[in-house]
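Predicting holo structure, S-adenosylmethionine bound.
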Amino acid sequence: MRKIAKTLALQIPVVKNWYASLQQERSESSRRLEELRNENSRLLNEKERLLQERDELSQDNKRLRTDCDTLSQERDMTTALYSQSNELLQAKQRECAELAQQLASTYKDFEQSYKREALLRQHVNLLDMNRLDLLSAQTNLTARIMSKIELLQSSDFEVRKLLLAAQSNHRGTERMLQLHENSSYLDLLENVLTGIISEDEPECPHAPTGFDPDVRLTGRDWPKTALTMIGKARLRNFRTLIETVIDDAIPGDIIETGVWRGGACILARALLKMLGVKDRTVWVADSFCGLPEPNPVLYPADEGDSHHAENKLNVPLDEVKRNFERFGLLDSQVGFLEGWFKDTLPSAPIDKLAIMRLDGDMYESTMDALSALYDRLSPGGFVIIDDYCLPNCKHAVSYFRELHSINEPLLEIDNAAVYWRKESHAFALAIKSPSEED
Ligand SMILES: C[S@@+](CC[C@H](N)C(=O)[O-])C[C@H]1O[C@@H](n2cnc3c(N)ncnc32)[C@H](O)[C@@H]1O
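Done. Tokens:
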């Protein structure tokens, strides 16, 4: 027993230890159990949350599936549309290819016809240029022929006068020689004033280079230093008409409106002096500073006229007077009207005119001169329009003649200038062509 008790006693601390370790294990297990409980409740919570999430996900999934269905439907529709449009596209591509082919062949045709047209256009241009060249050559030729006719007519007029003088009385031959001498002097003066004698070069920008006697005959260039630009034929016409009014005793002075360097007026004064005419004045009307700027409001025909910009047309009064002096012809039978025609001509101290020579280039200048002076022109007197070839000047003349019912025939001088004789009963008979006179 004791042995057993001893053994047991020996066993007590072991049991105690065992019991203590059991106690420890139990408390450890309790703690562990507590922890597991906690863990369990956390897991339960987690499970709850996951279940919720799962529900939500399942809802999302449902929605996504619906979306997916819709998208699938849309995709099917789009695929169907795509294949339709693909078919259409292919059809269009085929059409385009056909059209491109057609276009290419049309383009080829077009290119060919365009080339043909360009070629034709070149031919037409060439023909046009030839036609214009021919026309201008024809115009020049006409001007030259007409100018020569003017000279011939005036020579004829001179010869007749010489013959008449020769037949007139016992001193006829003497008179004829005198007239012949006068005429030679005037011929020389014409050649000096036009620059023919000095072969004066042209300086007008549009003129041919170098002196050409035929061009100077028709007055189609502006001489560099000579005193008139109207050319020999128009100068001769002026001379013949002055002689005519003197022979026919048409009363009145002589005026040129637009004188430039004064050459034509110098010839007129020389003629009066040579014929011993003391009761007529040569009126020299000019701004002496060129042409006015166009006034298209009052005179639409002058719109765009550029003569006012030509500095070469500005010749001061002193220079013109000096030109008269150089010929010994500046005296009381020369009157100067300085200023614009609209200001000077209406109040000019002129009673009667036998000749009015208008050379102001523009509508306004022509109309101002006609309106201010025509009433003072004696019947049987002459109006010379130097610039009738310029459309605005021609327009003014036509309008004035129509307005005043002037029906006297316009006579051409050199395919540029014209003149008419103011009719009176006596002189209506005198206006005859040379052939009628024969
Ligand atoms: C072509 S030039 C005359 C040429 C001149 N008859 C000759 O024998 O050479 C024109 C002239 O007209 C003048 N003129 C033009 N219109 C005028 C106007 N309205 N008033 C004054 N002078 C004018 C210019 O000053 C210029 O001198």
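The two ends are 204 Å apart (CA to CA).
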